[in-house]
Each structure stands twice: as C-alpha cells, then as structure tokens.
C-alpha cells in the first residue's frame, strides 16, 4: 500500500486520541455566522434612501430587527451575493417613478438592470437616483403570459420571473440577493411557454389575445428587444408586467419590474421586488409577494426559450390608474413607515417560534362548531399554475366589473359545476363578490400530452370537461368513471394514452386552484364521509406526495408575516374562507383568525384590502422565505462528504474512476453557496482521511487503523471549503482512482467508517455519500451473508427481508438528529445484505442506489448508468435540515408514513436532506365523521434550508370533496395512487410479517374492493367480473405488482434485488413508481408523426401504448419497453430491414450485436423519430435510463419477457387467469 | 413463610405498578410531542427487561409456593412479556422502536397494553394484599 499515492502525503496515526494526536483546535464551524450584520443594515439603509418620502429610520429599524436577534444571517450569504451578481443571476427591481415606465422604457435600460444587481449588493452608499433609472426602465412589460393569452385583462399585475432551472433538476433554488431580504425570488417557467413549445396553437392564441387596451406594436417590440437583450446579456429572461387591468383600478400600473434569471448558472435566482410607487426602492416591509403563474411541466423545454409574444402582450398604459396607484402606494407606504412592525401576528409567530422545527404539536384545539359553508366563490382568480393555462390572474379589485373582452364564463358554469359547496357570503364586500372567474383550465398533470390536449377553450366548460374526460380515465364526470366494466369480457382495458390522475369533483374555481396531482395525490378523490363508508368500499385511503419535485414555476413569497392559523398552524391557502376583509377561517380546524395588517396589502395588484387576492390565496403551491423564527440555528452550509470503499473488491470493480470523473466534471455544479464544504474518506480495513486544508501543497492522507474506537485525526482540514481548496480537491480526485490499484486488503470496515463520517459531519449536518461494494466485514456493523442461493426461487418463504442488526438504524437516527443524511451507493456483485445496509439511508432521509454486478469495463451499461445517475445526483437540488409536516382537516388522521425519513412526532417527518426525487406516502383514517363539511383539505409544509443557506417553506394544499354514497367513492378512485399506496403497505407487510402475507393482502385488496362494488350494483348478472371504470385497471396493476421483483415468488430473484425493489417502492414518487410496476410498451418500427407533439422544435411521435403481453409482439416489429430505469428495445427476427438499417445502422438482423446500448445517430427520418421519442422519454425522468437492445433469440430476452405481466409464467397467473381467480374468490 | 412470599409479591407488584404508570406517562408524552420518539423508546426499552424479570419472578414464586390460581392468572401476562421480547426483529432497537412507533397505530397499541397491565397489576396488588393479611392472621 505504501507505494501508492505518490502525490499524497500520508501519515499513519496509530495513537488513540491523546497527546500523540495532531493538535486540535476546534475549527470555527459555520464560519461567518453572525458576521454580516452590518452589511445587511447597510443594505437596508440603502434601501431607505428613497426619495425622501420614506422615513428611513423605521425601515432601518425593521431591517435590523428582522435580521438581528438570535440568528444573524450567515455572512457568506452576502459574499455570495456579490459574486452572484456578476453572474447576472439576480435582478432586483422595484417600482420606479410612476409615469414613464410603461412605455417609455428604453430598451437600453435592461442591461442596466444587470448592473443594478451588483449595485445593490456592493454599494450601500449608492445614491438612490441611480437606481431609479435602472429600475424604472426595464420594468414594464407584461406578465403572465398565460393570463394574457386567455384574454383576461385583469391578470398579472405583477412581475413574473422565470428561471430556467426549472427543468433541470440540478438546479438549486435561487436565492435572492442576500443584500436585500425583501426581494422575491422565484424560479419559474411559464408553463405556457412549455405548452407553446409543443403545440402550435399556443402561440397563436397568445397573439390573439385581445386586451382592452393592448399596447401597440411598438412597445411590444421594445419588450422583445429588452428581453432579447437580457437574454443575451444574461442568458436570462426578464420581463415583468404592468397592470393590465382596465383603467380604474390599476394600481399596478406603477409597478415596474424586471426579472432576470440566470439560465445558465444553477444558482440562477430571480429576484423581484415590487414596490409601491411611493415607496420607491423600499420594498414594502411586510408584504409583497410575487406570484408566478405558469404550468409546471416536468418535461418543459429549457427555460431560455420563451415565446416572445407572451411577454410582450398585455401591457397597457393608462394614466388614470397611475394616480390611483400612487395614492394607494402612498397609503401603504405610510402604513409601512409609520408602523415598523405593527403586525400583531408577527409577534405571535415569534413567540410560537418554529413549531415546525421544535416539533411542538400545536394541534387544533379550537373549532367552531358551526361549519359555515366556505365561500369559495370569493376566492378565485389566479389559478395554480400547474395547469396549463398558467394564469395568475387577479381580477381587478374594483367594484366596477372589468371590461373583460371575453364574457366571463364564470357564474353559470361554476354554479352548474359546483356541487353543494360554495355559497357566497351575502355580506361580502363588493370586491369579493365580483371577482371575475378567470380562466378555466383543467387540473391535469402536466406533460406534453396534457398540453396538447389542452385547448384553451375557456368559455366552454362543457368542452373542457369533455376534454378532461378524454384525457383521464376516471375523471370527474361520474357516468364514465362509474360505468360498470365487465373485466373478463373487456379485452383491452389498458388505454392507448397514458393514464392521468382523476380530477377531484370540485367546482371550477377550486379545481383550478387545486394542487397539481404531480405533487399531491390522494387515493380517493372523493373522501368518504365516515370510516364505515370507507370500510365498506374496501379501498385504501392515503396520500402520495412528491413535495420537493422540480417545479417549472413556483410563487415565492417573502413577507414578514407568514399567515398561519393560530390554533392548528395551517398556512393560509386558497381554500380558506374570508368571512370579511379582516377575518379568515381556517379550512383545517375551522378557527376564525384575523387577517394581519400586512396581509391586507396586495403587492401584486398594489391594492389594499384584498387579502383574498394575495398570492398565498391564489396558489395551492407556494414557497415562503422563512424568517429566523423558523430556524433553530443559523442555516447550515451545504456540506458533502464522500465515503469510499477502496478494498480490493472495490478497486477491481473500478467505480472510483467513474466517480472521480463525475465529481471533477460536476464540482462547480454542486449546489451550494460560497460556504460549501466537501470532504473525502476512504476505507478498507482502516479508515483514511484526507486533509485538504488550504495552504497544503498536496492532499494529506491520514490513516486511522483503530477501528474499534474511531476518532478524527485532525479537527480541521477534513471538510474544506470547496472554493478555497478546489485545487487540492482536484489533485485528490485525479489521484484517487490509481492510489489503491495494488491493494490486497479485502476487508471492509464500513461501520467504523460511518461512525467517523458521523463525527465529522455532526457539527454541521449535510450529506454523506457512501460507496460500498461488499459485505462489511470488520468492526461495528459487520454483517454475515444471509442469503441462501437455493432459496432464490422459492415459492414459500422469503427470509431476511429485514435488517440483521440495529447498528445501521441507530447510526441513521444519530445522523438524522445531527441533520446528516446518508446516501448509499451499493455496487456489488455479490450479496451485500442491502436489507441491513439500507437502514442507514432509510431513516436518515437518504437515498439508495444499487448497481448489481457493477464493473466498469465488463459491464459498461452499469457504468454508464452510474455515471448518469451521479450527474443527476451531484447536481440536483438539495434541501438541508428539513422537516415536513402534513396536516389534514379535523376528523382525518394519519397513521402510517412511507418513505425515507424519521417520524419525529405524530405528524412531523424529520428529513435531514430532501431531494427532488423523493416521494412519500401517508395512510389516513377517518376518526370523526365528516358529515358537517363538504370539503377536506390536506396541507404539507416542507421547511428546509436551501443550498444557498436560505430557510424556505414549501407548502402544498390539496382540497377534495366529501361524499356520502358508496358510488361516489368508487367514482373518485385514483387507481394509480391506490396501487402505489398498496405497494408501500405490502412492503411493510412483507418485512414485518412475510412475503406471502403481503401477496395475499394484495390479492385481497382487489377481491374485497371488487366484491364490495359488485354488491352495490346487484342488478347486474354475475356473469363476469364487474368493476367500475375507475377501477378497471386495478386488477391489472395488482397483478403487475405481484410480478414485480419485490413481490414475485417462483422466479429466481436475488435477495438484494428484491430488497432494492422494495426500497424503491418506498421512496419513489408515484410517476416513477408506476413505470416500475407497469412498464409502457410501444411499437417503434412504424413511428409516424400522427398525433406527435412538438417539444423544443423537435417532433416527438406518440405511439399508442400496448398492453404488456407477448401477443402484441410480432416478429416483424421492434418494440420499446419503458420500465422507468431501463429501456428495452426488442427486435423480432423478422424485423423490417429498413428499420434495422435506418435506425440501428446495421445491414440486417443477424449483424446486430447482442449488446447494444445506444442508438446511432443516423440521418434518416425513422432514426430521428426514434431518437427524439427516446430522448423525450428520457427527459421526463430524473435518472437517465439505460437502453438495452434485446434481440429475439438472445438470452437477455428473459429480462424483457419478465415484464410482460399479462402473460402467464411458470409461477404466476396470466391476466385472464388472475381475473378468474379473483372472481372465484369473490363468489366464495 | 406464606406471609413472606406475599410481602415480597406485594412489593414486586408495587414496582410493576409504578413501571406501568411510567410507561403510560412516557407514551403519552410521546403522543403529545413532549419528547421525541428516540428518547422515549430508549427510556422505555431500558425497563422492558426489568419488567419481564419482575413479573416472571412473582409467577415462579407463586408456582413454587403452590398458589395455582394466582400462578395461572399471572401466566398469560408473563408469557406475553417474554414472547414480546423474544419476537423483536433483529433489526429493531428493542420492543419499542423509534422508527416504527408512529406507524400502524403502534403507539396506541403500546398504550393500550400498558393500561391493561396497570389494571392487571392493581388487581394483583389487592389480591396479594388480601392474601398477605390472611397469611399474617393465620400465622
């Protein structure tokens, strides 16, 4: 061993910690907390140097108040900001002087905006006027494109920003320039854009927008120019919107804004800070928030590409409004300046500090017994984005009806659609009542298809619902989802288009406010009124969450007061009801709360007294920038530690090369700010630390051989600042793959290495990535092989699904307590007892990756997969020291959670790290009858520290109707969610009881629910198996689940594979899990452009889905199977030679190699189509799948055929047999 | 002699009653979020073995001293205690596992169990008291 590591100095430390050890001087860990005080103050002072109008002192005071106190903001933040501004990542704008901005903004000013960013941060002393110039100019253009496109004038009075990162996972959330706490940040991408990218009709519609007083061509050109300039300058988009609203009430007018986003830097934040005209640069101390409408689309096009039209639309000058706006502004301004912290609830918040964190359950104690019907009619307006018509519309506040160019579709339709809920309050203020209903946009999962099918016919609700019906199998129109289907007779239950989530049967207003099904789904979209009814339906009730999903757009709200219910601490959301202007009623506990003063001011419309139009109330997914009340300690920096196995086995597999290469490539893209720290440890039978202290000429290797009592050889230098020690890190990464090439050490002391990692990380918390290639064989946590290979295909008992020792669980809990997550990469060719090892990630909120039989040269496809996964892993967004709390309406209770986390108290999940690929599931029960309410709501609040050191809260709220009849319950089943929840429950069951129990439970779930349904429709002759249309896929999915690696019996399955599949079921979000359970099969040798969608100028063919049966395969065809993490292309031996030639690049079938993992880039139409289809599929998921080409006669075809779940296998039923089996069980 | 047996049983029973009350208090603390699952479970797991031993000793003592009825009364509870301890999966951190205690209503069932035991021990307490007095009088 000694001969290695030429460039690395080594020290062997045999001494236990003691005098012999290296000197210890405790490092200042979170360097720089608290340092920055004065900078902030300076900044604020700077803000307050407004044009004299503002009283500087109050503001100042406020700022300092805000930031001082217990937690001073991390110093580095500031430093970061200044650098960030160079990147052009941030923009700050504020309402400029009222008049000119709208039209007069010379295009040239935009570039100025870029410099403003730096001005803001760097120069506190900068005289105000200079800002004005900058700000006023770029400000004005339009807003929310979607709203505009729909022809609603009232929309978007705020600025909107886009950040390109949305599409890409890697992106970390942008943080606003540290210098100005008040700016709003968002990352967003207007969905519309995405839509238009794919569908020709969108742009057209945008253009067609008829605004009452739309700008002439000139201004729009200006906008375009400006935009382009910004783009070129920054590679960002910036546009903002002036109020479109018709004359009278546009306070917004003055609202100027510019937004920028850096599309190229992961950090690309966008800051927007609207300010009242009177307030000039001082963002209103409390209020303000910005909303970004738009549709999230997972597969959205890169942000940079924005249709210009949408931005250009909708600007509208009006001078009258200016004055009004000024008045309002002044008013607000006065308020703001006269009372620095007037908000009663602020103090309240403070004193209740941090219940998220502290874990104090302030559960609902109050409840007003009289359930007043919610007046949802009052709350309309902006729709949650996710929908395809991203509209943040805030109808004009003015009592006079808006001169909508298009007749408001609302009243009649919504009434029609409205179920019993939604009574208006007679006493509402005029402003509340006449809010025009905004766009009708369906609530549907995003995605290209959805876009495609989403015509903008907003006047016609009928059309809409019919399109919904076409889209989703079990969407709300009851007749369809309740239509009895005779499963044994219906041959093709599987639709040819992807199955979408059913839309809750709510009235239109609520529907479009509701949370996106991609983030939040419930197994029953109609909640049964009583537990008895639920029991009767025999269906699982639970939620499936994907809370930290990469969103294409997200309203980010900065305000001093985060408005929450006083008793249950629910965040204000679109489903609360405003009793009058001053009071709102919590929709979870029904307590009546006061509306804080600050909330009365709407920064978007710059109007006062319209709390129902605040972005929090207009969007069911929002993100708050949390104040120090939500911190128990200063936000931690991003800290990454890599713990690498370098035993003989590991070196032989050669993963180090791949890892070091990926790290070198992505070192600059690791999410974090200037405080980011990184460290490395390697281990075999000893533990090696690497000192990378700045100033060393080369990395220093410190070896600790005392694995029984692990200690850190040096107090500092092991976790180093990424930027300060970058050179050393690079040297180390280049050296690592070759350092251990001749090692003969076969033992692996994983346990002690983890203990050391824990010690290293515990002062800060962060992420530990463990790479392990074999069974740990030394020290604490050593494991024995438990797998008996002869039992792999046993149909009886599968043992050892649970952990063998509690060592890893304890370690995980310790880590979780210190905000450290452990991610496990297991690259092993033999049994490594994943069941035990996985515990280290499961309970510390880490993630698990498994690469069976990994070898970097013998198994290139695995190596490629590792490389791609690492790229995603290293660059994706990450949240630190997170907690998630799920709240639900009184009467419902959560009893079981699934996912990777530690349940710290009844409803508080402790997540040391949160990543965008983590999904969660929760089981619910109905404890009290829900007879006195017609709606239930669920809210998840995820509090986390972004990689930029900002505390943020992401809140999702889902609203669902309550029904009292069994038929309605069946009508609302979300079969995919139900199957995923069942899969989670089955995993628990197989670990706690046995695999066969779990399998029986799955079958019983089908039998029970179908027989319960059968008894409700007794008039049907029992000739076949009857299921409601909403459940017609249920048996198929359950059968697929039974044949899934996790639960199958009879087929040879390695224990680790099985356990890994179980881990994935527990931690994958629904979309990815569904592909794992039931892959999609397409025929790809005859792709046509029929029904193709357009993405980024590419035409993506949309072949129909085929059922997973060999009967669909023909020798003449080529088929693609999308299993989530793997693609298989199966080629029949009679496959069309044109396809083989044009797509695969080989002359005939025989010459196609057995192992092919890439499609060549050929310049033929069919090759292009195939590749664009594959790329499109790939882009839709975070981890890039590996492609396997399977020839008809190749031995690998069993891999492919095992996924054909509808076929009979030696050990399992075919689909038809399964149906017959279920039917027999029912008749028994 | 008999009196000594019952005096001992009485003391032991008192201890078990206190232990049950302690279990109930700790679990309800957890229910109310006053303590976190980790510390709750480590507190409780510490007392699982003493409880098991304490109860087994009384049972055996009753068997030895040929009090059949009292022995049979104690037997199910003692068996349950031992069974519960033996059946802990190898990966769990004891009878009370912090990662699972909030799942599948485990907290509630632990609570229910502790309540039942409390009732049972109170019953035993009076039984021992009565028997002790009887024994003392007979002496």
From TrEMBL, chain A:
Annotated ranges, domain Gelsolin-like: 1101-1174
Q: According to the UniProt entry, which residue ranges have a biased composition of type Low complexity? A: 258-278, 293-303, 336-346
Molecular function as annotated in GO: SNARE binding; zinc ion binding
Q: Where is the Sec23/Sec24 trunk domain?
A: 635-874
Record's superkingdom?
Answer: Eukaryota
Q: Name one GO biological process term.
A: intracellular protein transport
Q: Which residues form the Sec23/Sec24 helical domain?
A: 974-1074
Query: Locate the Sec23/Sec24 beta-sandwich domain: which residues?
Result: 879-963
> In this protein, which residues make up the domain named Zinc finger Sec23/Sec24-type?
562-598
Give the span(s) annotated as Disordered. Answer: 1-31, 78-108, 194-231, 258-312, 332-429
An example of a Gene Ontology cellular component annotation for this protein is: COPII vesicle coat
Tell me how this protein sits in the membrane.
Peripheral membrane protein
- From start to end residue, where is composition biased (Pro residues)? 396-410
Q: Where is the composition biased (Acidic residues)?
A: 347-359
Q: What is its main location?
A: cytoplasm
Q: Describe the family membership recorded for this protein in Swiss-Prot or TrEMBL.
A: Belongs to the SEC23/SEC24 family. SEC24 subfamily.
Q: What is this protein called?
A: Protein transport protein Sec24B isoform X1
UniProtKB/TrEMBL annotation, chain B:
What is the primary gene name for this protein?
A: Cnih4
Q: Which family does it belong to?
A: Belongs to the cornichon family.
Q: Does the keyword Membrane apply?
A: yes
Q: Which residues form a coiled coil?
A: none
Enumerate the subcellular locations listed in this protein's record, separating them with semicolons.
Membrane
Question: Which keywords does UniProt give here?
Answer: Membrane, Transmembrane, Transmembrane helix
Quote the cellular component terms of the Gene Ontology held in the record.
membrane
Q: What is the organism of origin for this protein?
A: Octodon degus (Degu)
Tell me the InterPro entries matching this sequence.
Cornichon (IPR003377)
Q: What is this protein called?
A: Protein cornichon homolog 4 isoform X1
């Amino acid at each position: 061993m000694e001969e290695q590591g030429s460039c690395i100095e080594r020290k062997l430390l045999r001494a236990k910690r003691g005098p012999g050890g290296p000197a210890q001087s405790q490092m200042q860990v979170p360097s720089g907390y608290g340092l920055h005080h004065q900078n902030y103050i300076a900044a604020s002072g700077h803000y307050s140097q407004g044009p004299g109008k503002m009283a500087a002192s109050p503001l100042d005071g406020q700022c300092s108040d805000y930031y001082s106190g217990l937690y001073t903001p991390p110093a580095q933040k500031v430093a970061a900001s200044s650098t960030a501004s160079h990147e052009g990542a941030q923009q700050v704008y504020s309402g400029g002087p009222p008049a000119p901005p709208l039209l007069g903004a010379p295009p040239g000013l935009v570039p100025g905006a870029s410099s403003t960013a730096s001005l803001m941060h760097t120069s506190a002393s900068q005289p105000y006027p200079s800002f004005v110039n900058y700000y006023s100019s770029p400000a004005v253009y339009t807003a929310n494109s979607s709203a505009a496109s729909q022809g609603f004038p009232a929309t978007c009075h705020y600025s909107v920003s886009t950040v390109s990162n949305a599409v890409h996972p890697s992106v970390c959330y942008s943080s606003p320039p540290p210098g100005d706490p008040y700016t709003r940040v968002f990352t967003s991408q207007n969905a519309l854009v995405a839509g238009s990218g794919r569908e020709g009709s969108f742009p057209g519609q945008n253009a067609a927008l008829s605004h009452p007083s739309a700008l002439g061509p000139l201004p729009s050109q200006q906008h375009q120019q400006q935009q382009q300039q910004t783009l070129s300058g920054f590679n960002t988009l910036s546009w903002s919107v002036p109020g479109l609203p018709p004359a009278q009430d546009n306070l917004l007018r003055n609202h100027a804004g510019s937004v920028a986003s850096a599309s190229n830097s992961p950090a690309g934040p966008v800051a927007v800070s609207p300010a009242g005209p009177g307030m000039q640069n001082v963002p209103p101390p409390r209020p303000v928030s910005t909303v970004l409408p738009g549709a999230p689309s997972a597969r959205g096009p890169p942000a940079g590409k924005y249709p210009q039209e949408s931005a250009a639309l909708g600007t509208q000058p009006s001078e009258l409004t200016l004055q009004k706006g000024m008045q309002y502004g002044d008013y607000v301004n006065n308020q703001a300046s006269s009372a620095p912290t007037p908000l009663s609830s602020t103090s309240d918040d403070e004193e209740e500090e941090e219940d998220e964190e502290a874990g104090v359950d302030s559960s609902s104690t109050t409840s007003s017994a009289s359930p007043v019907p919610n007046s949802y009619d009052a709350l309309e307006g902006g729709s949650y984005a996710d929908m395809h018509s991203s509209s943040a519309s805030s109808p004009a506040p003015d009592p006079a009806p808006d001169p909508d160019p298009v007749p408001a579709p609302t009243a009649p339709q919504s009434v029609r659609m409205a179920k019993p809920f939604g009574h208006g309050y007679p006493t509402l203020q005029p402003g509340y009542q006449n809010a025009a209903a905004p766009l009708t946009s369906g609530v549907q999962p995003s995605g290209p298809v959805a876009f495609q099918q989403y015509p903008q016919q907003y006047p016609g609700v009928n059309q809409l619902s019919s399109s919904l019906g076409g889209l989703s199998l079990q969407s709300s129109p009851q007749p369809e989802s309740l239509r009895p289907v005779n499963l044994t007779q219906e041959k093709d239950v599987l639709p040819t288009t992807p199955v979408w989530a059913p839309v809750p049967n709510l009235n239109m207003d609520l529907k479009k406010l509701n949370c996106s099904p991609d983030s939040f789904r419930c197994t029953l979209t109609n909640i049964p009124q009583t537990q008895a009814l639920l029991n009767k339906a025999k269906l699982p009730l639970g939620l499936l969450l994907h809370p930290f999903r990469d969103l294409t757009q997200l309203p980010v709200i900065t305000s001093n007061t985060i408005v929450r219910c006083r008793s249950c601490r629910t965040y204000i959301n679109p489903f609360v009801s405003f009793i009058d202007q001053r009071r709102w009623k919590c929709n979870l506990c029904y307590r009546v709360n006061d509306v804080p003063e600050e909330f009365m001011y709407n920064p978007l419309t710059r109007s006062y007294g319209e709390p129902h139009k605040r972005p929090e109330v207009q969007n069911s997914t929002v993100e708050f920038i949390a104040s120090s009340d939500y911190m128990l300690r200063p936000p931690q920096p991003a800290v990454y530690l890599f713990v690498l196995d370098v035993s003989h086995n590991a070196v032989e597999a050669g993963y180090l090369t791949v890892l070091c290469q990926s790290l070198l490539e992505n070192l600059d893209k690791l999410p974090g700010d200037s405080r980011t720290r990184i460290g490395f440890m390697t281990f075999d039978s000893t533990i090696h630390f690497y000192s990378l202290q700045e100033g060393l000429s080369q990395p220093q290797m410190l070896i600790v051989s005392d694995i029984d009592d692990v200690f850190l050889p040096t107090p500092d230098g092991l976790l180093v600042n990424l930027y300060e020690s970058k050179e050393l890190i690079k040297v180390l990464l280049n050296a690592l793959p070759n350092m251990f090439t001749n090692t003969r050490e076969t033992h692996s002391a994983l346990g002690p290495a983890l203990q050391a990692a824990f010690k290293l990380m515990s002062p800060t918390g962060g992420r530990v990535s463990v790479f392990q290639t074999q069974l740990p064989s030394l020290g604490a946590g050593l494991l024995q092989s438990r797998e008996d290979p002869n039992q792999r295909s046993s149909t009886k008992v599968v043992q050892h699904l649970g952990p063998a020792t509690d060592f890893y669980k304890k370690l995980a809990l310790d880590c979780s307590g210190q905000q450290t997550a452990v991610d496990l990469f297991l690259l092993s060719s033999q049994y490594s007892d994943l069941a035990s090892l996985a515990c280290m990630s499961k309970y510390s909120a880490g993630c698990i990756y498994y690469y069976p039989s990994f070898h970097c040269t013998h198994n290139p496809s695995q190596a490629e997969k590792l490389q791609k996964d690492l790229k995603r892993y290293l660059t994706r967004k990450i949240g630190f020291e997170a907690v998630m709390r799920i709240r639900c309406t009184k009467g419902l209770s959560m009893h079981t959670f699934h996912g990777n986390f530690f349940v710290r108290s009844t409803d508080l999940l402790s997540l040391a790290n949160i990543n965008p690929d983590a999904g969660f599931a929760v089981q619910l029960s109905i404890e009290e009858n829900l007879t006195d309410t017609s709606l239930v709501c669920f809210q998840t609040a995820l509090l986390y520290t972004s990689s930029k050191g900002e505390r943020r809260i992401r809140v999702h709220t889902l609203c669902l109707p309550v029904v009292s009849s069994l038929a309605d319950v069946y009508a609302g089943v979300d079969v995919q969610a139900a199957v995923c929840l069942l899969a989670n429950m089955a995993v628990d069951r197989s670990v706690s009881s046995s695999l066969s129990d779990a399998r029986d439970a799955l079958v019983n779930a089908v039998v029970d629910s179908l027989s319960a349904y059968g008894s409700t429709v007794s008039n049907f002759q029992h000739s076949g198996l009857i299921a409601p249309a909403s459940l017609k896929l249920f048996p198929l999915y359950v059968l697929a689940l039974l044949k899934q690696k996790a639960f199958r019996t009879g087929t040879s399955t390695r224990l680790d594979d099985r356990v890994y599949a179980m881990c994935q079921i527990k931690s994958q979000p629904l979309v990815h899990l569904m592909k794992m359970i039931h892959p999609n099969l397409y025929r790809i040798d005859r792709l046509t452009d029929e029904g193709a969608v357009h993405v980024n100028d590419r035409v993506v063919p949309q072949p129909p889905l085929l059922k997973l049966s060999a009967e669909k395969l023909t020798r003449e065809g080529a088929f693609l199977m999308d299993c989530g993490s793997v693609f298989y292309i199966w080629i029949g031996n009679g496959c069309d030679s044109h396809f083989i030639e044009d797509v695969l690049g080989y002359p005939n079938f025989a010459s196609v190699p057995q192992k092919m993992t890439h499609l060549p880039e050929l310049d033929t139409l069919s090759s292009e189509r195939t590749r664009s289809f594959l790329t499109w599929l790939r882009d839709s998921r975070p981890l890039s799948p590996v492609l396997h080409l399977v020839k008809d006669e190749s031995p690998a075809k069993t891999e492919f055929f095992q996924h054909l779940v509808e076929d009979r296998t030696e050990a399992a039923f075919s689909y038809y047999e399964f149906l017959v089996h279920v039917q027999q069980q029912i008749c028994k | 002699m008999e009196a000594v047996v019952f005096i001992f049983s009485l003391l032991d029973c008192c201890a078990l009653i206190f232990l049950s009350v302690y279990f109930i208090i700790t679990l309800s603390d957890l229910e109310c979020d006053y303590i976190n699952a980790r510390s709750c479970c480590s507190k409780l797991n510490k007392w699982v073995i003493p409880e098991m031993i304490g109860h087994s000793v009384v049972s055996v003592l009753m068997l030895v001293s040929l009090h059949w009825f009292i022995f049979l009364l104690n037997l199910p509870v003692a068996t349950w205690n031992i069974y519960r301890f033996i059946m802990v999966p190898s990966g769990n951190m004891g009878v009370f596992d912090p990662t699972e205690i909030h799942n599948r209503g485990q907290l509630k069932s632990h609570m229910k169990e502790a309540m039942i035991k409390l009732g049972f021990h109170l019953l035993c307490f009076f039984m021992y008291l009565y028997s002790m007095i009887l024994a003392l009088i007979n002496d």
